[in-house]
C-alpha cells in the first residue's frame, strides 16, 4: 500500500477530497495541517513556520511522498524560496517532496505552456507574486484575474458554476496558450475539461498539477478528469 502525505493549510477543505477521489485503491492519503486564516502575503509567509513540524508529523506515517499542498505559500518567496521549502519538507518527512507551485511549473512546462491566463481567488498582491514566480520559470502571465477573497476558508465556497462564470466573464485572450486556475482550496476538477472544450486550451489547476506530480512519482496513471495533463502523460508513455 502506497502512502501519500499532504501538508494542508488549516482552513483548506478541498484538496483532501479531491485527492481522495482520484487515488487508486492501492494508496492512502494522510494529512497534517498548518495554521492559516487570511489570503495575503503575510499569512502565506507565516504559515511556512509550520511546514517543518507538519512534514515531520506526516513523515512518521512512513509516507512514500510528501506534498506541500498550498500554492501561495510555496510561491510567495519566489523560486529560491520554493526550492528551500522543497528541501526542508523532504528532509523533515524523510520522503521525496513536491510543492504545489513547483508542480504547477512542471505541469505547465510539460504542456509547452509559455503564456498563461491566470485565474485565482486571491487579492491583487498575491497575484503579483504568482506572476513573478511563473516568470522565473519562463512563463508569461498574459492576464491575471482574482476574486479578491480575504478569508481563506471562504475560497472553498466558490462552486464549479461560479468558477466557470468567473472565467467566462473575462475569457482568456487570443495570445494565451493555457488557462491556470490557482489555489488548492479551489475545487476545479469538474471544470477542467469543460473549460478546455470551451476555449480549446489546456487547463491546469493547483490540485491537478499537484496530483499529477504525485501520480508520476508513484507510477500511477493520471485520470482523464485532469484533461490535457492526462493526455500529455499518455502521449509520453507511448514515446
Explain the overall architecture.
By secondary structure, the protein is α/β, with parallel strands linked by helices. The protein folds into 2 domains: 117 residues, 3-Layer(aba) Sandwich (Rossmann fold), CATH 3.40.50; 103 residues, 3-Layer(aba) Sandwich (Rossmann fold). Strand 5, helix 7 and strand 6 form a beta-alpha-beta unit. Helix 3 packs parallel to helix 5 and helix 6 packs across helix 10. The C terminus is likely disordered.
β-strand amount: 15-25%
For the termini, the CA-CA separation is 29 Å
Number of helical regions:
11
CATH class of the largest domain: Alpha Beta
| Unreliable residue stretches | 234-239
Rg = 16 Å
Q: Could you say which overall geometry the principal axes of the C-alpha atoms support?
A: globular
What fold name goes in the CATH topology slot of the largest domain? Rossmann fold
Query: Into how many domains do the coordinates divide?
Result: 2
The secondary structure category is alpha/beta
Helical percent range? 40-55%
Query: In what order do the strands lie side by side in the largest sheet?
Result: 2-1-3-4
Largest sheet: 4 strands, parallel
Spell the H/E element sequence: EHEHHEHHEHEHEHEHEHH
Write the CATH architecture name of the largest domain: 3-Layer(aba) Sandwich
Number of strands: 8
Mean pLDDT across the residues is: 96
